[in-house]
Specification:
single chain, 18% strand, globular, binds zinc ion, alpha/beta, 8-stranded parallel sheet
């Protein structure tokens, strides 16, 4: 505001002078000078209020004992794949009590949630010594998100995630729900309310195609249509939704991988930064030269697979992504330094020990 006042004042002074001098050539010259001085004046007064952004220093992460924490930001990451969450434990359903136990187990074992987007963008931000874990939910079943009358069912996945987040400081509320249409979460009158709720809580809606199709069997045009319509539907219900990753139904993508990355149908554009497979192992670090965001493996969140992979990382901590706690560096043991993809550092400084 200060800038505006001083511009008005300056303008007034020049205007009075031009009136007094009142020759046409002088007026033109003075108007020119006015423009130059007004522009300069505005910039100067803004600078005096707020220093330029580049001079603002980010807080530095405290130094860590590398030998004690043994960070390995080239280690592997668990992307967990849930389907239904219900009162049954089955191949495609996790009992809600077991889901609650999964969160507790991961928490105690030093895992902390990051979004799929931050993982793919190599913006993993968890404290030193902790490991990222990515939560994904496929098929938008009612057990993932259910309302009873007006309240959220405390035993659906969304409520369990929110409750755990509230009770455990440092446990971020991050998950992506890979939904398909026309009836995601199976309570047709509440679709808009649910999708908006997910977005308002900072979680994400992902693409699982519009009608849960096998993309491999479709022409490129039809595959693009299925992907684009899913984005369009999400944004119709929740305009703030950013749908930028896809979980491939049956783990199968279109023949032409370019269709997966970006496309358009009937005026609806889409861009996917990642595509998720159905199985069957932890994913490579996003800083690894072999990282392929369009073929991301996941670990099925069923008892046997969780036991196997959590047990594996316990026995082989050197295989697990362990954060250095510093968002500005990528730290790995010397033996793995050659695996760093310098094109995917996202501004971070590589460091080995
Ligand atoms: Zn599915």
């Amino acid at each position: 505001m200060r800038g505006v006042f001083s511009i008005t004042k300056t303008y007034y002074n020049w205007f009075m002078m031009t009136k007094i001098l009142s020759t046409r050539r002088l007026q033109l010259l003075l108007i020119l000078l006015l423009i130059v001085s007004a522009t300069g004046c505005g910039t100067k007064s803004r600078d005096s209020i707020r220093p330029p952004q580049k001079n603002v220093k980010k807080p530095k992460a405290p130094p860590i004992d590398l030998q004690k924490i043994k960070p390995n930001e080239l280690g592997k990451v668990l992307i967990l794949e849930y389907h239904d969450v219900s009162d049954k434990e089955a191949r495609w359903s996790r009992h809600y009590n077991n889901f609650k136990a999964d969160l507790q187990r991961l928490y105690q074992a030093g895992y902390r949630p990051v979004s799929l987007r931050d993982f793919v963008r190599n913006r993993i931000s968890v404290p030193a010594g902790m490991s990222p874990v990515v939560f994904t939910f496929d098929d938008a079943t009612e057990g993932q998100f259910r309302y009873t009358d007006t309240a959220i069912d405390p035993n659906c996945a969304v409520a369990i995630l929110e409750d755990f987040h509230e009770k455990h400081p440092g446990w971020a509320l991050e998950a992506t729900f890979y939904v398909y249409y026309p009836n995601p979460f199976r309570q047709p009158k509440l679709i808009e309310k649910k999708l908006r709720h997910i977005i308002s809580q900072g979680m994400d809606i992902g693409n699982h195609t519009y009608s849960h199709v096998n993309l491999k069997k479709l022409s490129s045009i039809d595959a693009a249509k299925e992907i684009a319509l899913s984005v369009q539907a999400a944004r119709n219900y929740a305009p703030k939704a950013i749908v930028d990753s896809i979980a491939l139904p049956y783990g199968l993508g279109p023949v032409d991988e370019a269709v997966l990355r970006s496309g358009e149908y009937d005026g609806q554009n889409y861009q996917n930064i990642a595509a998720l497979l159905v199985g069957a192992e932890p994913a490579l670090s996003p800083a690894d030269t072999k990282f392929n965001p369009y073929r991301l493996p996941r670990v099925q969140a069923i008892q046997s697979e969780l036991d196997m992979w959590l047990g594996y990382f316990k026995r082989h901590p050197e295989k697990r992504y362990i954060s250095d706690g510093d968002p500005d560096t990528i730290t790995a043991p010397k033996s793995l330094a050659g695996n760093i993809d310098h094109g995917r550092l996202a501004g971070k400084r590589p460091r080995s020990y």
